[in-house]
């Protein structure tokens, strides 16, 4: 085992499973989503609104860059010492009455949670938004086992009732407008007033009435966690609606499913992360509800407290020297709100629970680049760099995208001996561009391009799938009669 | 100063007038320009497409070409190619475990500047009309390319210089900092997403009423210009080097579609 061993049985690092896969190649999925003009309008409006809010509140902090650096440094330090940090967390969580479970992958995590719920005798659970349970497909698994899971985060509820999937990690229903939400409520909430309008306050009240009933009857809650503090064994959830707090305090049993990368050394680190996270995610100075809980307190709150520490490919990502900083992600979603690709395709095009720029690196790092269609994800970016600038923990997403493209090319070449069109294009370009002499010779053919361009001096159609894709929407100007290098030589310069 | 010109492959083959304009600007300031003949390309396309072995060969050629000539600084009229030389070349060498090449790459990268970076930071040019005699009596808008803006941190150097050109009218481009959607092979591999980004950029350019969109990266301008042309737009693109090099006596050649926008 490498230095990434995290205290679990000595098995090779595991590839992640579950909802971490592109369901089809990104270009194909993206093209379909691009055709949905309502989606594009919703996304554009929502991402631009959050983007502007974020810029305002980030601009208020004179030490924003120092905060980013501190966040990045803390995460780097945790990742370099993850086994020890997790051991410390386990010790302290257990000492305060909690029970720790380790899950290698999605299947194991689902089984652990199901057994824990079964042991309570309950067939209904409430949930507070958890990316980790989306990742492992817990709701679907529980349903198969006869256990009904109710999402309580408003946006998650909309997605669940709409038989849909989240398309954003912070605003899972970002792709729906309020009229669409009203229609979902009318169809799926039996008790709802049939005259419900699309007024946001009315919609919120309808959801509130629907959820209150679940909170008061549920014996078991399942949560995610934004962080785990190693030195006290404390867990924390950050949210906007207070529904999370209801889940965390009312039921008798509380089961948290959390990725192993979420651990922080101590409460002092919250000073940095509680500034970075709300400002980056919702563009607020502080989120409305922050809940921290440490083990069991007799007579107050859940009396059975569990945590499932999930690997599911995280050690796989950690073992990647060039990609491991993707695990520093605090799930704020700032990268997707500034991404020009996400803005146009939405989250579903990425297939995985983790969409946008971070998803384009995180998913293949967790599953391995060879997994199904995940090899197409690192190409879902123009490398404009907006995500890196926005990331509160300074994950260099463009560099990791490029690294993973290299991994994909390596994997492709290992799998097939037949060169692709891209291979041929790259080989040709390599020959032409590795020497000034060869390039000079190639440039002698420029007048041919002028011929192809014809009278209007534009090349409108190139052969081949790749070059043809370029000219599907863009002209190429007629090349010049003479290259610069030729002109320079003829001028007798050196 | 002895300045080595890195023309970049796109400018060399497709936009030689941009390279000639770069030479004119530097010579007008009294500097000597040399052209390392062995140069071809920075290898950015190969790197960004994941073909690291090929990219390393292309990068090695660039490094060798620029080592074989005596010069004080190197300059390229392209932010993304400069970013590639500075950031990607050492990375490619390090990945291959070639520490010698990594050191050589870092040395070449340290002496390489984007055109406006050189003009403003090294040569002290802050007023193009005054110091370069620049004159360009047209309405333009300006697109800052991603690599210049985010990797090289050029800030307002390009825009500020353009604003000081004699006779020019610079109008602000809405959502200027949004990527045009080129992204090298991204525009082929994800052609539809790239097109959607390009359409928005073209629409923003159209909304300014300017007949020309200026920028500092020939590849982005090729992409934007290609989209404008296909859409039948009256607007075109022009590299800022040609605008800075334009004078009353020797005016820049403006794309024919834009003559209507001449002031």
UniProtKB/TrEMBL annotation, chain A:
Residues 1-22, 471-494 are annotated as: Disordered. Residues 422-492 form the Lactate utilization protein B C-terminal domain. Residues 326-395 form the 4Fe-4S ferredoxin-type domain. The keyword Iron-sulfur applies. Signal peptide: none annotated. Keywords: 4Fe-4S, Electron transport, Iron, Iron-sulfur, Metal-binding, Repeat, Transport. InterPro entries: 4Fe4S_Fe-S-bd, 4Fe4S_Fe_S_CS, FTHF_cligase-like_sf, Helical_ferredxn, LUD_dom, LutB/LldF, LutB_C, NagB/RpiA_transferase-like. Residues 86-309 form the LUD domain. GO terms for biological process: lactate metabolic process. It comes from Zhihengliuella halotolerans. Pfam families: Fer4_8, LUD_dom, LutB_C. This is L-lactate dehydrogenase complex protein LldF. One of its GO terms (molecular function) is metal ion binding.
Automatic annotation (TrEMBL), chain B:
It holds the Pfam family CCG. InterPro entries: Cys_rich_dom. It comes from the Bacteria. One of its GO terms (molecular function) is oxidoreductase activity. Residues 3-85, 140-224 form the Cysteine-rich domain. GO terms for cellular component: cytosol. Signal peptide: none annotated. This is L-lactate dehydrogenase complex protein LldE.
């Amino acid at each position: 085992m490498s230095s990434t061993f995290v205290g679990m049985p000595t098995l090779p690092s595991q590839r992640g499973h579950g909802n971490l896969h592109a369901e089809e190649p990104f270009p194909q999925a993206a093209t379909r989503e691009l055709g949905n003009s309502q989606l594009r309008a919703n996304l554009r409006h929502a991402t631009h609104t959050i983007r502007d809010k974020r810029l305002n509140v980030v601009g208020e902090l004179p030490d924003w860059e120092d905060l980013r650096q501190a966040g990045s440094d803390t995460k780097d330090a945790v990742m370099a010492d993850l086994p020890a940090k997790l051991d410390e967390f386990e010790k302290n969580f257990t000492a305060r009455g909690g029970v720790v479970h380790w899950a290698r992958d999605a299947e194991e995590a689902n089984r652990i949670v199901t057994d824990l719920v079964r042991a309570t005798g309950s067939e209904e659970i409430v949930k507070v938004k958890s990316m980790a349970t989306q990742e492992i497909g817990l709701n679907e698994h529980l349903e198969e086992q006869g256990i009904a899971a109710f999402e309580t985060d408003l946006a998650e509820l909309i997605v669940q009732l709409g038989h849909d999937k989240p398309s954003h990690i912070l605003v899972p229903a970002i792709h729906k407008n309020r009229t669409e939400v009203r229609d979902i409520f009318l169809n799926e909430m039996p008790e709802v007033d049939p005259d419900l309008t699309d007024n946001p306050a009315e919609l919120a009240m309808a959801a509130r009435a629907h959820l209150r009933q679940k909170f008061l009857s549920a014996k078991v809650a399942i949560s995610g966690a934004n962080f785990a503090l190693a030195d006290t064994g404390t867990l924390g959830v950050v949210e906007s609606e207070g529904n999370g707090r209801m889940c965390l305090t009312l039921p008798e049993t509380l089961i948290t499913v959390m990725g192993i990368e979420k651990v922080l050394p101590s409460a002092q680190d919250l000073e940095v992360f509680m500034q970075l996270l709300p400002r980056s995610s919702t563009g607020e100075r502080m989120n409305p509800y922050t809940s921290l809980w440490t083990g069991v307190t007799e007579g107050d709150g859940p009396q059975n407290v569990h945590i499932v520490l999930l690997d599911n490919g995280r050690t796989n990502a950690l073992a990647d020297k060039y990609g491991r900083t993707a695990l520093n992600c605090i799930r704020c979603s700032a990268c997707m709100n500034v991404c020009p690709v996400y803005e146009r395709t939405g989250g579903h095009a990425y297939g995985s629970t983790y969409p946008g720029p971070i998803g384009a690196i995180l998913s293949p790092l967790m599953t391995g680049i060879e997994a199904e269609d995940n090899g197409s994800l690192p190409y879902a970016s123009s490398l404009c760099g907006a995500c890196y600038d926005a990331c509160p923990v300074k994950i260099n997403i463009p560099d990791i995208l490029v690294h993973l493209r290299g991994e994909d090319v390596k994997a492709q070449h290992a799998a097939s001996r037949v060169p692709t069109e891209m291979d041929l294009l790259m080989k040709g370009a390599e020959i032409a561009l590795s020497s000034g002499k060869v390039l000079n010779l190639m440039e002698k053919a420029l007048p041919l391009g002028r011929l192809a361009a014809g009278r209007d001096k534009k090349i409108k159609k190139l052969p081949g799938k790749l070059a043809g894709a370029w000219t599907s929407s863009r002209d190429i100007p007629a090349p010049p009669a003479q290259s610069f290098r030729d002109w320079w030589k003829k001028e007798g310069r050196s | 100063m002895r300045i080595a010109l890195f023309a970049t492959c796109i400018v060399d083959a497709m936009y030689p007038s941009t390279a000639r304009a770069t030479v004119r600007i530097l010579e007008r300031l009294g500097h000597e320009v040399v052209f390392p003949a062995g140069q071809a390309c920075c290898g950015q396309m190969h790197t960004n497409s994941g073909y690291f072995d090929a990219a390393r060969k292309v990068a090695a050629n660039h490094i060798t070409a620029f080592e074989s000539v005596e010069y004080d600084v190197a300059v390229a009229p392209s932010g993304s190619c400069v970013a590639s030389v500075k950031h990607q070349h050492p990375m490619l060498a390090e990945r291959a475990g070639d520490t010698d090449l990594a050191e050589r790459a870092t040395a070449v990268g340290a002496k390489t500047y984007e055109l406006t970076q050189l003009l403003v930071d090294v040569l002290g040019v802050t007023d193009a009309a005054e110091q370069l005699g620049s004159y360009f009596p047209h309405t333009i808008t300006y697109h800052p390319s991603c690599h210049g803006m985010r990797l090289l941190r050029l800030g307002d150097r390009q825009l500020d210089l353009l604003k000081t050109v004699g006779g020019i009218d610079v109008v602000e481009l809405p959502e200027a900092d949004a990527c045009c959607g080129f992204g090298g092979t991204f525009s082929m591999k994800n052609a539809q997403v790239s097109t959607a980004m390009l359409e928005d950029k073209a629409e923003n350019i159209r909304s300014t009423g300017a007949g020309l969109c200026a920028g500092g990266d020939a590849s982005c301008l090729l992409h934007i210009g290609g989209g404008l042309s296909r859409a039948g737009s009256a607007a075109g693109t022009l590299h800022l080097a040609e605008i800075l090099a334009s004078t009353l006596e020797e005016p820049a050649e403006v794309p024919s579609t834009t003559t209507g926008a001449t002031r």
